[in-house]
Amino acid sequence: MSYLNKIIYNCKQATFLIEKKQIRRLSFREEIELRIHLAGCGMCVLYNKQSRAINDMVQQLLQDSLKNDLKLDDAFKADLQAKIEEGLGNK
Amino acid sequence: MITETNVLNPHKWVAAYADYLYMYAIVRINDEDTAKDLVQETFLAALEKVDRFEGKSTERTWLTAILKNKIIDVYRKKSSGLAIASANKAAQEQDEFFEEDNGHWKAEYAPQPIAGMDDEDPLLKKELNSILQKCLQKLPALWNAVFTMKHIDDAATENICTELHVTQANFWVIIHRAKVNLRACLQKNWN
After folding, report:
1. Does residue A90 surpass a pLDDT of 80?
2. DSSP 3-state assignment of B100?
3. Which residue of A64, A70, A77 is in closest CB contact with B26?
């Protein structure tokens, strides 16, 4: 298989580069290879879009859980403070 | 010039920081009991180190740093032993997504549109979010740790590699596999 054909068929490598690109700059060669692949592969174009959407969703999950205001129960807290006081007493 | 020095007041720790630390742990560990244990361990470890507090950071920052180290210990523990077997298993599964010889998507795993992802419908989005949460939990522990540190803490790649004992090469493989798995899991459980 020719070098070009390898790039065109290799979705595994293309998705690898898509992930890498979200975190750091690709090398010139990697960038060109990814562009060639995406120019001809609708599936990886879709993957690229969905992969970024997943990042946003993960961020959103984080924001939501911060809003949830999950709190420790009072009994646990009282017990914990008592342990701390005990530790302080032993000092 | 007098610089302000922070002081510790352990008598107020639980009231002031317990909920904050609990939240911090829950987001990164996703297990209420483990998170509770970590909060307790953090305070007790902090108590041991009170003498070494230099007052350079705030009480909260100092306690959070202690908790962060404990969370990384949990990641490490979870990703050794048995977890490695499950990580390898998941790696094999991911190889099923692509053709062995040329790396092309296998027809059954090729990306398809996932409704709710592009949709602005809040109900669809909510449902998709809860599927995403389940999919995240299904990731092998090490992958989840790498993914969480990168996406929630925005940690530097070098730090993640050092703290979790993975090589740079492995880091990229994990980042890739984690996302391919997550996406496939969403597609499978949604459509």
Report:
1. no
2. coil
3. A70
Tell me, what DSSP letter sits at residue B51? G
N-term to C-term CA, chain A: 73
Tokens of B55: 């007052």
> Residue B39: what residue type?
V
Across chain B, mean pLDDT equals 85
DSSP state for residue B50 in the 8-state scheme: G
CB distance B116 to B125 below 8 Å: yes
Rounded to 10°, the helix B59-78/B32-49 angle is 130
Q: CA B58 to CA A63: how far, in whole Å?
A: 24
**Contact (CB, 8 A) for A66 and B27:** yes
| Subunit contact A77:B110, Cβ cutoff 8 A | no
B163-174 burial code (b ≥16 CB/10 A, e <16): bbebeeeebbbb
Q: Is A27 on the interface with B (CB under 8 A)?
A: no
Overall size of chain B counted in residues:
191
| Chain-chain contact of A61 with B133 (C-beta, under 8 angstroms) | yes
Nearest CA in chain A to B19: A71
Q: Which tokens is A31 given?
A: 């960038």
pLDDT of res. B75:
85
- Kindly list the residues from chain B whose CB atom is less than 8 angstroms away from the CB atom of residue A25: none
The Cα B166–Cα B56 span in angstroms is 32
Q: Residues B140-150: what's their mean pLDDT?
A: 87
